[in-house]
Specification:
The protein has nine helices and two strands. Helix content is 66%, strand content 3%. The longest helix has 35 residues. It is mostly helical. A hairpin with a 2-residue loop joins strand 1 and strand 2. It has a two-stranded antiparallel ribbon with strand order 1-2. It folds into two domains: 56 residues, Orthogonal Bundle (Multidrug-efflux Transporter Regulator, Chain: A, Domain 2); 128 residues, no CATH class. Helix 5 crosses helix 9 and helix 8 packs antiparallel against helix 9. Pfam families: MerR_1. GO terms for molecular function: DNA binding; DNA-binding transcription factor activity. Keywords: DNA-binding.
Length: 218
């Protein structure tokens, strides 16, 4: 297909496709003349993946390029690619009391050791968790009530996250599932959590009829 048809199928404007080609986010098509190229369904799928990573995952172009480079390797390392996808979705914060942050790092290290989690010492996620715990302390809240419960839930979710990846038969498909699952899974989990919070709030604190309409019984 020509670039115009590729644009129509993928729902991405032609100038944007050309930008992705320049940035290395989309493989070049098969040249049919000095200024014409032919594309196929793999380009359609890649464009849709790039849009998901940009629009839903909010990942930087450089991070997406790195992920896609790994995805295109002949025998991609699933664990490595998942590690590159996940930290990019975890925010970090600057500043704060160094003593509080040190104590938070110690608490995270204790949690990791207690649960036998296999993490590198410089994993960005462990630093991000420590920064959040420190932020709890700095606003006068105690994260301890939530920490173990959240860790329990995180373990169960991670099992299903990786089960989603392991269903695929080859490494390339596994890496694709890992990237998509890491980005869209976070968004889905956030939405489901908010829905469950609204439900629990209605049960715990009561509900006004003008603020929420219960689903009709079948």
């Amino acid at each position: 297909m020509r670039i115009a048809e590729l644009s129509q199928k993928a729902g991405v404007p032609v100038p944007t496709i050309k930008y992705y080609l320049r940035e290395g986010l989309l493989p070049s098509g098969e040249l049919t003349s000095p200024n014409q190229a032919r594309y196929d369904d793999r380009h359609v799928q890649r464009l849709r993946l790039v849009r998901v990573l940009l629009d839903v995952g909010r990942l930087p172009i450089a991070t997406i390029r790195d992920l896609l480079t790994k995805l295109d390797e002949p025998d991609p390392d699933v664990h490595e690619v998942l590690g590159k996808a996940l930290p990019a979705t975890v925010g970090t914060r600057e500043g704060g009391d160094p003593a509080v942050l040190t104590a938070a790092h110690d608490r995270v290290s204790a949690l990791i050791a207690q649960r036998g989690w296999l993490l590198s010492d410089d994993a960005r996620t462990r630093h991000a968790a420590a920064e959040v715990i420190a932020a709890f302390q700095q606003v006068g809240a105690d994260a301890e009530y939530l920490l173990e419960h959240y860790a329990d839930a995180a373990e169960r979710i991670a099992v299903h996250d990786l089960g989603f990846v392991a269903r695929e038969s080859d490494n390339e498909s596994k890496v694709h599932a890992a990237v998509v699952g890491a980005v869209l899974g976070n968004s889905l989990l956030a939405a489901l959590r908010r829905m469950a919070q609204e439900h629990e709030s209605a049960k715990m604190f009561g509900i006004r009829e003008d603020n929420c309409q219960a689903a009709e019984a079948d």
